[in-house]
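Risk mitigation, structural track. In case the binding assays with UD2 fail to produce interpretable data, a predicted complex structure has been prepared as a fallback.
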Amino acid sequence: MNQKVIMVTGAAGFIGSHVVDRLLSSGHEVVGVDDLSTGSEENLMGARKHKLFEFANCDITESNFFEILVQRTRPDVIVHLAGLVSVERGEKEPMLNYRLNLHATQLVAEAARKFGIGRVVFASSAAVYGASEDLPLSEKSARKPINLYGSAKGLSEQLLAGYVRSYGLNAVALRFFNVYGPRQDPSSPYSGVLSIFVNRLRKGEPITIFGDGWQTRDFISVHDVVSGICMAATCEDVASGDYNLCTGRSTSVIDVFNELRLHFPKAQDAEFGPERAGDIRDSLGDPTRAKEAFGFEAEVSIGEGLKELLES
Ligand code: UD2
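Fallback model:
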C-alpha cells in the first residue's frame, strides 16, 4: 500500500471520526482537525492511541493556525468534512452557515493551492439538488437548493471547480445522501430520522411520523460513506468534479419504522403528525459516476445497517 499523509477536518464528528479510524487502520498517517464545537473527543478515543495520528484543535476560519498546520504537515490529501451540519441552524444563523460551509471551503482550497496539496475531497450534500425532481438524481441534475445549507454546499462545489480551472487543483466533491449509523447525534428534532427513531424506541418514547410516512430517502450507512471518502482520497487518479455517494435504493419512513419496531415488541404505534415544512417527498441518487471514477459501491443493506445501529 502507498502510505499517505491525510488531513481530515471535522475529525471528531460523526462521519469524520469513522474516516479517521478507517484511514489509520489502512496504515495512513492522519492529521485530524476539529474545533470540538459539535464533534466530540470521545469519538477519537481509539485514534488518540494510534502513533500515526496527530490532532489539532482548530477552527479553520479563525486566525491562520490552519494554514500554518497545512504548511507544517504537508498532507497529500485534505478531506474537508468540517462544517455546519444542521440545515435548520443554517436558516436561523445565515452568517454562521456562510462561515462554516462556504468561507471555510475557500480557506481549505487556498491552503491547498499555496502549499501544492495534491487533492481536496469535500463533503457536499444531496441538499444541493433541493427541489430537483428528476429521480434518480444524477450529477447532471440541476442544483436547485431550497435552503442556505444546500446553497453554501453548492457554492463550495463551484468554488472548488474554480480552483480546478484556475490552478489545476484536484478537487472531488462528494454529495452525501441520508447518512446514518453509530455516533450520529439524535438530540435535535432535525437530526437524521433513523437516529431519532432508535433513540426514542430505546427510551420507550413515542415516535412521530411527519406526513403519511410514504416519503422516501436514499439512506446510506456511514460505513459506505466512509468507504467512498477513503476511495476518493486514496485512489491514484480521480477526476475533479462532483460525485453522489448514495446507494441507488430508496426506502420509506414507514418501512424503516416497521423494521425497527420488530426489535422493540413493547413499542407503541407511531403517531402521525403534519408533514414537516420544507420537506421533500422523495430523494434517490444514482451512484454510477462514483463507481466508474473510483470503484465506489454501497455494500450495507438497510436491514444490516439498522441492525448495527441497534447494537451500537
Ligand atoms: C433534511 C434535513 C432537514 C431539513 C430537510 C429539508 C438532515 C438530517 N435533515 O431532511 O433538517 O432541512 O432536509 O429538505 O439533514 N421524519 C419523521 N419523524 C421524525 C424525523 C423525521 O417522520 O421524527 C421524517 C421527515 O419528515 C422526512 C424523513 O423522515 O420526511 C427524513 O428526515 P431527515 O431529517 O432524516 O432527512 P431529510 O432529508 O428529510
